[in-house]
Design a protein that fits this description.
The complex is a heterodimer. Chain A has ten helices and ten strands. By secondary structure, chain A is α/β, with parallel strands linked by helices. In chain B, helix 4 packs parallel to helix 5. The longest helix of chain B has 16 residues. Classes of the chains: A alpha/beta, B alpha/beta. At the A-B interface, helix 7, helix 8 and helix 9 of A face helix 4, helix 5 and helix 7 of B.
Chain lengths: 229, 234
């Protein structure tokens, strides 16, 4: 898969730009990082949303498993059984790729199997519980591309460690794109980084090169002189 | 405001400090595992629900709550109106309200968004706007549920600058978070487990004690991983 040079007009005075071609082929997990409003979620929508293929941002558009940033909109009016039923439905594309046994294994790992068994309405789930359900569902879709938009939101460290182990597993069978504001997420699972600023991809490099990018590291706490535990 | 032996519904009884005080001008960080009841506690203090046992003495104080998902509390069309409304609602004149909107938007670095439609904002931008709207209310207690979860470092610092200013003005700020690395912005740390606050300490005491409560900050793991990558690069 290649990221093409492109311009995509989001709204009046707001245009997403990539100046040069990048071959993402050799990489299994690509971290999309950058400040608030730098265009991370917008860029990934150009890959995930079939209606935006006209922008020509990517060289190919395989089926994507997608964990959205805002799960509440998706989930609130339903029960786990209802949502899982949708994922299993063979009339939908996702139903052809969904692996229920993988889902059960991931739900168990993330500590929500018992909760799902109760089949309570998702409106009563905490944000972290909803996030863990969303991750289990998206990770159980056997798709050539898996997109995780801020998957570590509302998760504590034990849950994040399970998330990292799940991502390491799926990146063996699927190209993973992960968006996050937390440097540790990228360091734990990614092998390539796209760095965004002001709706542009400003930098791109294999992850180990991050140690040579002080201007990027300085955008995160926990790596320099700032006080921390 | 004081909380006495508060226990949330659906949780077993547990040990912990019998009374907690939300002092005027204090900045409190609420930490706890996913599902420990942080959001439920904030909603309870805000008056949206009742405790299973215990009591709250609000001392006539009013609170404002920033929800974990900021999309749930948008009421206006544009960013400007979203920020202007809480000031007008607090009884300010139009000129005073405009000045307050500009100032808070400036502190949080969102002045360039003022004319935008709320529906065109990213998650992080929405979080900043709703944070500003919360600080622009005239509530005495600001309850912020993971306000920095979708923010970059510059925006996190701006958020806590706003918090410091509110605290200096006599407001109480209680922040639920999954990020223990941010502890030093606060005066006090509360640790929540299984539906109750189990420990309460000064933030400088928390620094040496986080491991006791099973809390692992990102920074310790980041440094280890960067070291590994640096060796690989050589």
């Amino acid at each position: 898969m290649k990221l093409n040079p492109f311009t995509y007009r989001i709204a009046e005075g707001k245009t997403l730009v990539n100046e040069r071609e990048t071959d993402l082929g050799p990489y299994s997990c690509i971290a999309l990082m950058g400040a608030v409003g730098s265009g991370k979620s917008q860029l990934i929508k150009l890959l995930a949303d079939s209606q935006l293929r006209g922008a020509g941002a990517f060289s190919e558009y395989p089926f994507c498993a997608y964990l959205s940033q805002d799960l509440t909109r998706l989930f609130t009016g339903n029960t786990p059984e209802g949502i899982i039923g949708l994922y299993r439905d063979p009339r939908y594309t996702v139903g052809k790729h969904f692996d229920p046994r993988l889902f059960e294994a991931y739900a168990e790992k993330l500590g929500i199997a018992a909760l799902i068994g109760e089949n309570r309405r998702l409106a009563h789930y905490s944000e972290g519980e909803r996030q863990r359900l969303g991750i289990s569902l998206a990770a159980a879709v056997r798709a050539p591309v898996t997109i995780l938009d801020e998957p570590s939101t509302a998760l504590d460290m034990p849950c994040r460690r399970e998330l990292f182990s799940i991502v390491k597993e799926i990146r063996r069978r699927s190209k993973v794109f992960i968006i996050s504001h937390r440097l540790l997420d990228a360091l734990a699972v990614a092998d390539y980084m796209l760095w965004m600023e002001d709706l542009r991809i400003r930098d791109r490099f294999p992850l180990e090169d991050i140690v040579k990018k002080p201007h990027i590291l300085s955008c995160y706490s926990g790596v320099d002189g700032e006080r921390y535990v | 405001m004081r909380l006495y032996n508060i226990r949330l519904p659906h949780f077993p009884p547990s040990e912990g400090p019998s009374a907690l005080t939300l002092e005027k001008g204090s900045r409190i960080l609420l930490l706890g595992a996913s599902g420990s009841g942080k959001s439920s506690l904030l909603k309870l203090i805000a008056g949206f629900s009742e405790p299973a046992s215990g009591a709250i003495d609000d001392g006539g104080k009013r609170s404002a709550l920033l929800l974990q998902n900021p999309f749930h509390q948008i009421i206006m069309q544009t960013v400007h109106d979203e920020l202007y409304f809480p000031r007008k609602n607090a009884g300010c004149s139009s000129a005073e309200a405009e000045a307050a909107v500009k100032e808070t938007a400036g502190t949080l670095g969102i002045r360039h968004l003022l004319e935008r439609d709320m529906a065109t904002l990213s998650f992080g931008e929405t979080q900043l706007v709703m944070l500003a709207a919360t600080f622009l209310t005239d509530a005495d207690i600001m309850l912020l549920d993971e306000p920095t979860s979708h923010l970059d470092r510059k925006a996190v610092q701006a958020c806590y600058r706003c918090m410091d200013r509110a605290a200096a003005g006599g407001k109480t700020v209680l922040v639920a978070s999954q990020n223990p690395d941010e502890y030093f912005y606060f005066d006090t740390v509360w640790i929540m487990k299984a539906g109750a606050v189990q420990a309460c300490m000064r933030s400088e005491d928390f620094a040496g004690k986080h491991a006791e409560y099973g809390i692992i900050p990102d920074s310790s793991l980041i440094r280890r991983r960067l070291h590994e990558l640096a060796e690989k690069a050589v």
